[in-house]
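Q: Can someone sanity-check these two? First one:
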Amino acid sequence: MYPNLLAPLLIALAIGLAALLLVAVRQPVSRRLAFRQLARRRTEAALVISGSVLGTAIIVGALVVGDTLNFSVRQEAYRTLGPVDERIVAPPGPAGRAVAERLGELAGSPDIDGVLSAQVTQAAAVSRPGGRPVAEPRTLAWQMDFAEASRFGRAGGDSGLGGANPKPGHVVVNEPLARSLRVGVGQQVTFYLFGTPQTFRVDRVVPEQGLAGVGLGGRLNRDAFLPPGTLDSAARAAGTEARSVTFVSNRGGVESGDALTDEVTADIRRNLALVAQQAPIETPKHTVLREAKVTGDTLGALFLMIGSFSIIAGALLLVNIFVMLGEERKSQLGMLRAVGMKRSRLVGSFTLEGAAYALLSALPGVAIGVAIGWGVAVVAAEIFRGWAVGGSSLQIVFAVTPTSILNGAAMGLLIAFVAIFVTTVRISRFNIIAAIRDLPPGSGRKPRRRLLVISSTLALLCALAAVPALARSQAEQTYLMPALAVAFATPAMLRVMPGRTAITVAAGAVLAWTLLAPVVRPRIFDTPSMAVYVIQGSLAAFSAVVLVSENQKVLVRPLRRLLERPSESGLAARLAVAYPLAKRFRTGATLVMYTLIVLVLVLLTEISGILNASVNTVVSDATAGYSLRLDFNAQVARDRLLADLRSGPSAGQISAVTPLLNATGRATDPGHRTSSPLDTAVVGVPDGAITGIAFGERLRGLGNDAAVWRALASHPQYVVLDAFFGSTGGPSGDYFDPGDTLALTDPLTGRTVQKTIAGVLKNGMVFYPGTGAGSTVYPVVVGETGMRELFGTQAQNASALVRTRPGVSPDTLATQLQGEQLSSSLVATPIASDVRRQFDSSTAFFRLMQGFLALGLLVGVTGLGVVMVRAVRERRRTIGILRALGFKARTVQRSFLWESAFIAVEGIVLGSLLGVLTTWLMYRNSAAFAGLEGGFPIEWTSISVLAAATFAASLLATLGPARRAAAIRPALAVRISE
């Protein structure tokens, strides 16, 4: 992922490594000090490295997820297209034959590797493995010359289809059809060609590759290749003709040929001349490859966003460790400075030590990251199967690119280097005498005048920049600019009020703004950018922790009775809270790690709860009383199928049938997110047939849902859209409203008309095609008059909505109807079951993200363990003195465990409260939750389990250091400093 970042990242990393190498060569004393610490503290070095490993692993894992999804979508180009770059589907009859003849003349073009003409029809197939019938209502029956097919595409390339043509009475099927029918070579299959059954024996089963997996836009194509002339004779017997399809292969390979799409498309259009209006030119490979990049980038960015919180936690772990190292070695550092060591060399020593940790963690981090990406791919494959439409799901294939490996490793190292360097510069600023004598740092100093002037100027600039950001609802700036203005104003506040008061006011203001920004500017979430969520979560966590850290003494007042108790437990409790209160920075850094991760985990848990609570409402909105959506072959079904539904064998189970007109169109994006035309499934609703499907938004003047449907029938310029129209993945937003316009085009004639949005559906599930498409297709619902005006005779009854009678099972009726209307290739989709299945898959996807984020929780728990390990070493002499004064070993152990529990509980409670509150504010104000009207449940059970697991893991991480502290011998500890 992100090949454009590779060069800048590698250059930045090379500069950083060169600087480190220069320090190591020119400062031998700094180098020896750094590497001596590595050699002496191997256990602690291993803990630091383990914390650093996870940061790199999470970055690499997120990038590998993007690679996998990108590669998986691109694989469709190999499976369903192969050498096919352009596809021209002509109508039956003389016009189709004329198109094929004209396109045949392009075979000599230098930009084209081949032109192949074929005939196709939609069919149904039945087999009888083991004597029981197995049906497949959606089959593509092809008639093409295998010799020409084998030569199609680049010379020496594999077109996917070759060998001899099947003999009369035989058929070649591809693997998806063979799996669906459970047949192999030599078994018989009956195909309904134009409604008439014909039986064939399977001659070969060919892999789903290139021409053997080709279709008319489907993601999964079940293909049957018939003997020459079979389709023509079946069409003549039915008094019709098969559709003519011409495939064009651009010069080059499967992906490289896409670069010539524009030139070849222009050549095809010129060659067809006036006939071009009867045969739209499709560029399926260009669409697939474009969507591969969008899908990979979007979902990769989503996982990178989720992983960002873990990355921040990893960076804080490094900061915390080096702050503790500085505290532990304060006397040693003071002596080094006293004997003449420059501060720059002290910085060099610490930076080299930290860089060594980061470099040692890089390779394990990459390996673990690849493993994480593989695990996500395995789970995602099951989830995408749940999102399948018409049995056609995205087939997840694990993939990893060197670009992602290098990007991930470089990002991990650079983040570590920056965190270490900034921390080292900060801890190198100390008073030499105070450091030698191990005195606490001075406090209460007012900010210097120069700092005050600079910070006040920056605060003013940020405040000014916040005004246009707020006016335009610019997401990232709306959060950042006011928060930065408050942060930069803090030094000025310290001049006029006590330090704790100033910091409390500043942190409280940032926290309040972070939580209230969606209320003030609810459109800030109308962006596909993931950065806004990282900024929101980080600001909430950091400001809340600063607020708590500055007021810890107030928060522990309820524990005063326990702390003042003259008992062993009272002593342990006082020791447990003494160090967190005294060492506010390190306590705050650990708290942020916990708060950040728990916040996002609770947020994901709450979103899953909202989905589960809303499923019944969404099902009701999606069905509006309808139970089934039927899709069928209009060329075969004609009016017979609708008549059978009303008076046939299953009519007693059906209360109403609403036929829908269908056509394929293209539309502009009313949300102006892209300038490329969007593929649309245009659906014509018979006048007055639908009144109950609900709208989330309506055009002003249309008082209720029925009024929108009446307006659609009486005004051809009106259309109705689904809320997800034009969505490319990621968080959805409110990009268009009733009254906005779009241009709707008939790709066959090229005619374009302007349409006005009359309403936005709460749920448009019933209008999505019931058979899977290879690319994203969005429904546009129009009235019957508007449909006929634009598409004419192309608009055919190819689908219908069905209401069942009370007590009838939609799933059972769907199976029954598919059997009765097999010759019409009918596919019956139970709407409620489909909606629930997709909700289950969405919930599973959130669980997948929670699992990915749980790695960040591991960073937090590891961080607490590392802090406690170093705390034991730092307090060694103090523990020895306490033990010499009569403190029991179990009191020391208990104090360490309670200290860990104190920090963990604060982090868990803060994260849980912020997670619930943030989700509630998003639910109330973000368009992403539009249509989810099941209420806002608090997932007490899930949150309690999360809190308990986190608390238990924290205690477990501290148990080892606590035992080591209890086992310290007083005499040795008092005499030995390390």
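And here is the second, same format, sequence then tokens:
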Amino acid sequence: MQATAVVDTDLLDFGDVPVGEWRERKVRIRNVGYVPFSAIEALGLANNPSYEVELGEGGNRVMPGESHVVLVRFHPLTEGLSTETVHVATDANQGAEAQVQVMGMGTPTQVGIEPPLLDYETLEVESERTLEVTITNPVDLPLSLSVGGTHAEPFTADTVTIPPLSSIKVSTKYLPRALGAMGARLEILSCEGCTPSTVELKGNSVASAFEFDPAPVPFDLIPVHERTQSFTRARNITWRPVTVERLVTSDHAFSPLSRPEGTTVQPGQVVDMPMEFAARFSGPNVGDLTVHYTSDKARNSQVILDARGGRPTMAVTPVALDFGEVPVGGKVERVIRITNAGTNGNLQFVGVAAGGDSPQFSVDIPTRGTQPHPWTGGTWPVLEVTPGVPIAPNPDALELKVYFEPTAVGTWTASLRVRSDDLFNPEREIILTGRSRATAPCVYELVPQPMMDFGNVAPGRGAVLGFQFRNPGSAECAVKDIHISNDGGGAFFMPGGRLTGGVVQYDTGFSAMVAFRPPAEGDFTGELQLTVSNPAAPTVRLPLKGVSRASCLVATPAFVDFGPIRYDCAATPRKTYVANRCSSPITVTGADIGNGTSNQFSLTTPMTAPVTLAPGEGFELEVGYARNVHGQHFSPLYLRTPNEPVPFLVPLIAETNHEGIQVDRYTQGTDSQLDVLFVVSNTTTMQQYQQRLQAAIPQWLQTAQTNGVDVRVGVTSTGLVARGPQCGGGANGGEAGRLFPVDGSRPRVVSSSSPTAVADLQANLGVGMCHNLVQGLETMRQALSAPLSEQMDDLRTPQPNDGNAGFVRAAARMAVVVLADEDDNSGFGPESYIQFLQTLKGTGMSHRSQLYGLVPTDAACATAGSGSARFTAVAQGTGGQVANICGQNYQGLLEQVIQRAGEPQADFPLTADPTGLGEMAVRVQGQPVPATQWVYDAEQNAIVFQPGAIPSPGQAVEVRYRSVCAAP
């Protein structure tokens, strides 16, 4: 018979225990034999001070079937994992010794803190405040206190140790010696390296107790010997009461009108301080008011007294709006302009309120240019904007549209009060008047029908079509609230914004654009909605439809825009180039003009049979415009291919004006950004000319840097098809618009800011001399068109990463510089490339892209051709220049390229020749520009703004003039 001992576990896990707290667990030594034994000892082998081990009470003799307890206590002294090995010894025959692994996790001590944040609020510098916090130590370890954080220095505590198992009130002090907001924390630690419990400390230091509003104190500008009054309000921004002792001004021309001496000002309390200024010949118009007061000690606050005038003052024009007579159900608008007539500081526009017949009137949200400032509170007739919209002194201004929208017959009058923080005139009143009359129900025509169908627009692209509203009836039509009621998830919008409406007389109408810019691939539906004066059916809806799917078709330009055309002048047909951007052939089965606003457009080169296009291959479509109906016209040109269920869209846009009047519109672009595409001939006679251009590059890039122009440069050759390996670059001379070198052996896009810009660009201009055919205009178009301009890799070619994506910047000007010793042989007419460059940057941006040519200009150069009519025509048609390639210095033309981009554009080429200046008018942002601020340059056929009148980036420029009819 033998004694056998076993322990009931070999692992004891205490889990998470806060530092300083105790946990106890038991291990039992069991007698599983038939003979008694004695428990001799139990101890921790690692001597870990966080553990205590002892044999339980009750004697050490363990009878068969009984057990004896070993007590294990965990008292973590640090955070983190803590382990021990408990050794148990008996005199049993079997299992006399055993070991138990013990583990536990020390966690942060749960210190009691009340309150957890001490906010000393605002104090004067070099003053102090004391606050108390109660800290409760729940464990048998002492806690240490210290102050830490970003701004610990101004904060102190009177206690450094919290005894075990105690609760102490700790006194803390904030004594700032610098100005500003400060923050720190009182850290309480139960062990070195432990996670501290914290009391957040924050305070703010100011120079003095009073904050003045307004400051400076404004006085009206008055004549000598006159007096004027103003006021300021002094608010105690500190935590403690202060007592005003006296008010002192720096000059007796300023005097206080109240006697607040002896007044105790509580925290946050405001004291009014009216002031007077008496103007005299020898006196100042600027002074100081010093408020002497007592807080912790004698102190003072100062505010400037300003009698120079120029405080923020609200001005509103006009002060009365008469909307005339409007049919019931109609809606018309007028605009008021809110400005700051002061010269010092911003005025805050805070809202409007209306009285009288206000239900017949309404207002839109205020705007600054195109930036809206929505109302933040209230409902009409009281609207608010919080915290206010700042208006700087002139020329800054807000505009507010006011609407007259009568619901019944009558004569109506309302008052509109414009509100601001103008201290002396916080409201300006505008009188609104209008009359309304009854009218017969509106009869109208709205096209296109049954819907406006955008067909397929490739992802990442956008398109514009339009609608026309016409009144064919015998009565007038009141139309209002013309807007996109369902934008298809942001896909549809009106480029000119929603239209207020107006009165459409018999046999007249109006048109407007609708844009489709899909945010992702998919099918989109939307709705245009307007309201007409027909009580039985006031709401008119026009469905909108569009699809966005990847297409193998690409059109360049992506839209055909005839621009404004005179009624009495023949319209020159416009072209678009339709190409296959995919790597396999496609068949175009049809090209037809869909339902638009009229039948003014026609295909002058209609498709008579399907056309199969190899990868990269394309054909031109020419569109005619009848121009015999006044107004804007929009129609969709659909291109159909069997593999794409929805036709590809090319929008057709035009506008017929009255006889003789031409309207050119531009948008001023961003200055100081220029993208340059060098198109360099790689024929066998080009060596000296390539070298001459390379030699001009260092000075050209230096000129760009001097003028602050950020230049991005790419190079392609005039080779459209491969010729031979002598040209290098990986394409055998057939770059076909791809940037050189196609193999990527050097950077293909060179930034003027690169330290190796000169060397990289000089190397790229060496496109080789292997070719025999110059097709520079077409390689230019390929380089700047999809798919090359959009893709990192041209899927139609075997070379990897040979696309041109990343070269063209949307906001930058574009200059194409051709270097060729003979004329172009691309095949398409020069006007096709002129139209391409004019539309490259979008509608109204034709002046942002030019072609320049270093080409033969006469027959005097024996080493080059006798002329370059095609290159010259495109340069002249886009506002560029040409210079003789045989000249010894190319800097003259290259510097013109830089100078044009170095500052906002002053010259805006006209699209037609004017008959004279008698009827010429120029507007910027809709406002007339005096004739003294611009001149007409007959040589350039351009309007040139004087230096002080050049439009800013983003501003719209419009030139109206009577033009000479161009030859059809």
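A (reply): Looked at the second one. The chain is about 5% helix and 45% strand. Helices lie at 687-706, 757-765, 776-784, 830-839, 869-877, 891-901.
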